[in-house]
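Example for reference:
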Amino acid sequence: MEYNPVKIKRNLSIGDLDAETDNEFLDTCFVDKGYLEDLLDVKNPCSIIVGRTGAGKSALLYKVSTSIDNYKKIDPNDISVKFLEHSDIIQFMDKLGVNLDLFYKMLWRHILIIELVRLRYKIKNEEENDNFFRGLIERFNRDEIKQKAISYFREWGDKFWLDTDEQLKQITRKLEDETKANLGVKYSGVDVSLSGASKLSDEQKTEITQRASQVVSSLQIKQLNEMLDMLAEYSFKDPQKHYYLLIDQLDEDWADTATRCKFIRALIEEVKGFRKVRHVKILVALRKDLIDMVFDKTRGAGFQEEKYESYILQIHWGHEELVDLVEKRVRETFRRVYTKDQVAISDIFPEARKVAHGKTAMEYMLERTLLRPRDILQFINETFKAGFDKDKITWTLIHEAEKTYSEKRLRSLKEEWGETYPSFEDTIEILRGRKSTFDFSDFKNSQFEAVITKLSTKQNEDPCVITARSYFEVNGSSEDEILSTILACLYKVGAIGIKLETNNSFIWSYRNKSAISAGEAERANQLKIHKMLHKTLDVRSNNI
């Protein structure tokens, strides 16, 4: 078709970068890679949606919610998990070193059971709550084990009409009461709080820790298993009715790192446990770096990550899929703003040219992304800003937009990885002004010394900072150790790709393996800086 040129309007975009505010485009331009069917299938174990920031995890959950009738979205910000951190009993037990893993699992099981029952029975008040339990008691009146489970559940909190955070507080208060009772008369005056734990003698700590641990280990998780069995048999047996709990925003700042990791690990275990309730599915969206950190920080003896593989849905995008996504959004954007005619990418963007090695505009831009929807949407939106009031996007405008886009990509990496690498902003400077591809032997240069010196002055838990501080100590980290630590960081965030042997291809965290070992870092032959960072880090082309 012959395209009728139009002026690019101010604030023209092909969608918001945040799925929460991008619903209109998600409704009309969603590209289904087959993930949606896997998530909607209650028989399919895929329940934990894993991907890097901007890969489309929240978009998938949104599409699930628009495809089903019976669902409830759980936001960790709404369940006051911060309350746990500041709870006297939790701080008391943390200070004493009591293992609270079982308690966190029990909390999630209560939360999830309560949300499912509220979803299934629409319980809004005490009368409806009592009717539900009356039905359970009558159904299982001859089953002593299940009667005990009902009694136990009611004892630990059964008020389904309360908000989830109220439920959580009730259960935590119950733990505190049980602990105080178990301490007995001898320790009746003990202040069950962080400051109280700090005042105990070593002898008192030993005995009280033992008694507090007994309370946690005696939590009747078995009784909650019975509750799950009852729900499967009594409440969720209709194969025509499926129920979903959707959990997102786990990567936001709703609790400190240690508490969050334990709580998320407990949730992952419960997602597995709830598989026994047929016709129910719990779907959780988790950032790739966050699930890696959770497994790393909660890794106990005998931990086997492969046991979780069948539950994890890894989101990956290819070039063609991203082009399809952009094509749909461009068509929809111009249909809304300008014309009912079908407008294609080729109508808006320039033809391939030899200066760009024969690459099309889309190929050029995709090379500067981590192959995620958010990256390419951001780049294209920047080209529209640069092309305001123009008839068409030119190569000059693409290069102009790339400067801003590159700066935003670096800023996004800092935000995305700030929890794992708090000093990433300093570490990334080791790449500034380099050639786009360079030998590992050239990694150590004058700015290398400046960067590790600056890192050594920081006071945080960034692996690069820890190794840099050690590097300047007598008998501390070796030069190889600081090099491999920094290299592992830059590789993991996607800033660089590495070639392990001369004849091998470059590998990238977003395309190949998500992390490299210290040994692999030390064996690196060549390094390549990702093109998304070339403009903002003043990277020089060496035509490789």
In short: The chain has a mean pLDDT of 85. The first helix runs from residue 23 to 29. The CA atoms of residues 6 and 338 lie 8 Å apart.
